[in-house]
Amino acid sequence: MRLPEWIKTENIIGEHKTKKVLRSHGVSTVCEEARCPNKGLCFSKPTATFMILGDSCTRNCGFCSVDSSPPALPDPLEPEKVALASKEMGLKYVVITSVTRDDLPDGGAGQFAETIKMVRQHLPKARIEVLTPDFLGNRGALKIVLDAGPDVFNHNIETIPRLYSQVRPQAVYRRSLEVLTAAREIAPSIPAKSGLMVGFGETFEEVVTVMRDIRAAGCRILTIGQYLRPGRQNLPVVEYIHPEVFDRYRETALDLGFSFVASGPLVRSSMNAEEMYSAREDGA
C-alpha cells in the first residue's frame, strides 16, 4: 500500500550527533532497533528512547522489527552507560524501555531499577519514564521497577483483543491490563500511561472499548498512532487511518476521562514524552 499524503517522514539534519553519542557509550535505542519513522526528528532535538537488556527479544511480535534471536546475559555496565549517554546529551527527560526478557527470573526488572538509579545519580533533576514489558504478570518484578521511583510508568496495550494472536501472539490482553492496574495499586502517585496502534483491521468501536478498559485500569495518559510496517517480515498494514479519525479517537478518549491524549498518524508512545508529561502537569 502506498503511503497517503498525510504520512510524511523526513531525514533531519543533526541526528548524526546523537548517533555518535549513542555509539560512543555503546547503548541501544528502540528508535533504531524498531525503525521508528520519527527517529530523525527525535535525534535532532536531541532525544532518544533507550532500550536496555540487550537488543534481542524473547518474543516475536508481528509488528516489531527488533531481533528475536536468543538474548545474551544483561550487561552489568548498561545502566551507567545509559546514564552517561543521557548526561552527555543534556536530557531533562529520559525514557527507558527494553526488549522482553522472559528468560530472566525477574524479567529484567532489576536492570530497570538500576538504570533508574544511575540516571538519578548522574542527572538528579531529570524526569524518568519507563516503558516496560508485562514481566509475565509478575507483580514482584513490577514492584521492583516502581520502587525505584520513575516519574511515569508506561505499558502499551498495543491493539484490540481480537488481534492479539496476530499482533502479540505471546502476550495476553488481560494480563497487560492487569499490569496497568497493579502499577496504580503499587504506586498510585506515579502516572500510568499506555499506547495503541491502529491500522491492523480494527473497528472504531473496538478501539473505544479498549480505551475504556485502559481507563478503568487507572491509566490517565494515552497515545494512539498509525501502524507502519517496519519490514517485509512484519504484518502488512490493513488500513491507513485518516487524521480526522485520530481526532475522533482523541476526543472520545478525553470524554472517557484521560488527562492527556496524543493521537495522530505518526504518534508513538515515547515521542514527545516530555511534552506529554508537562501538559499533564499543567492540567491538560
Q: How would you describe this structure to a colleague?
A:
This protein is an alpha/beta fold and 284 residues long. It has a single domain, classed as Aldolase class I (TIM Barrel, Alpha-Beta Barrel), CATH 3.20.20.70. Helices cover 38% and strands 13% of the residues. The protein has helices at residues 15-25, 30-33, 39-44, 78-89, 109-122, 139-147, 164-167, 173-186, 204-216, 243-255, 273-281; strands at residues 28-29, 49-52, 93-98, 127-131, 152-154, 192-198, 221-226, 260-264. Strand 7, helix 10 (243-255) and strand 8 (260-264) form a beta-alpha-beta unit.
Which short descriptors sum up this protein?
284 residues, alpha/beta, TIM Barrel
The figure for the number of domains is: 1
Quick one: biggest sheet?
8 strands, mixed
| Secondary-structure arrangement, i.e. CATH architecture | Alpha-Beta Barrel
Pairing-aware structural class of the strands and helices?
alpha/beta
Trace the largest sheet across and list its strands. Answer: 1-2-3-4-5-6-7-8
Helix content: 25-40%
What is the overall pLDDT average?
Answer: 89
What's the CATH topology label?
TIM Barrel
Q: Gyration radius, to the nearest Å?
A: 18 Å
CATH superfamily: Aldolase class I
Shape descriptor reads globular
Strand and helix order: HEHHEHEHEHEHHEHEHEH
Q: What's the total helix number?
A: 11
Through-space gap between termini: 36 Å
